[in-house]
Amino acid sequence: MTALFTPLALRETTIPNRVMVSPMCQYSCDARDGVATDWHRTHLTSRAVGGAGLVMTEATAVEARGRISPEDLGIWTDEQAAALEPITEFVRDQGSVPGIQLAHAGRKASTSRPWEGHEPLQPDAGGWDVVGPSGEPWPYDDEAPATQRLTRDDIESVVDSFRAAAERAREAGFEVAEVHAAHGYLLHEFCSPVTNEREDGYGGDFDGRIRLTREVTAAVREVWPDGKPVFVRISATDWLPDRESWTVEDSVRLADDLADVGADLIDVSGGGISPDSWPENAGPNYQLPYAERIGSESSSDIAVGTVGGITTPEQAAAIVANDRADLTIVGREHLRDPYFTLHAAQALDATDEIEGPPQYRRAFGF
Ligand code: FNR
To answer: Where are the annotated segments for Disordered (predicted)?
Structure first.
């Protein structure tokens, strides 16, 4: 059996192979209401048809002001959840596992879509005031939207929003809930000393800074079915070695804390906390060493997923065969090739190891 096509069992959920579609914003709720459109249905279901074991939605906002752009998906209303339900059903019908990334963009919210310049949007231009651990705005070239420091009461309501979003996602049929705590968005802004200068219980030392991520993960776990897994995406490093910042050692420690509140897998990404928080070389497998370290050094037996620069079947297969990560998470290659997993089975001479759609049998030969 090819390791890439062995199932991954987490709690009572079995992911049929080790390929996950990475969460990728589509900026396609054209009515700016957070409700999934034909684009989302086509995008997500075609990747399930393409054989990915787990199809994760884009960053799906748990409250309106937590959207990156006005066109992001949301799950703070019943209408938004209802629009996602047929997608989860179809993904499951293909033998794939539907996952949802629950997100809050913090001070990086309220921007235009990438193809419209990714510029900060003021409230009079369709944007809104944003929130963060402090009132310090993201350093845009243009004027940032007003950035408010969350009060203790506001923090409680953010945790409640994540919990309510998870409840809606559960009812909509998702099997994996992923907490987005990476890329310089709200939870990462609390974790990193680069952006968190709070002196109350949600800042200061490591335990204070990770408290919000821990509380959000615990709240999601509380309402997520016992048999179904919770993932957390983290930035393993801020890539800012010259200043006090978030490090891989911090990530190993965080993984243990999150395992403690019921997380099952750490989705290991990186960067995004400030404009200079980028890898020097984003080549093949560029974030794999962090996933490996978290997997081997954390004292819990939490699973790890690796993302970043995975583009070929051989690469993904080697990561799993050499036990370097439990799950390979493929982003941009899935935009180029929705059928990445079916093509991988062909390339690895393993079409008899997967159950592809019978409609496509004559093309792929499973
Ligand atoms: C992303 N990425 C991303 N990450 C995330 O956690 N939530 C998201 O909604 C998005 N949105 C998004 C949109 C688009 C168009 C791209 C290209 C990327 C990051 C993505 O999931 C992945 O981590 C990176 O692209 C690196 O993986 P690849 O592309 O090298 O496989």
So the answer is: 106-128
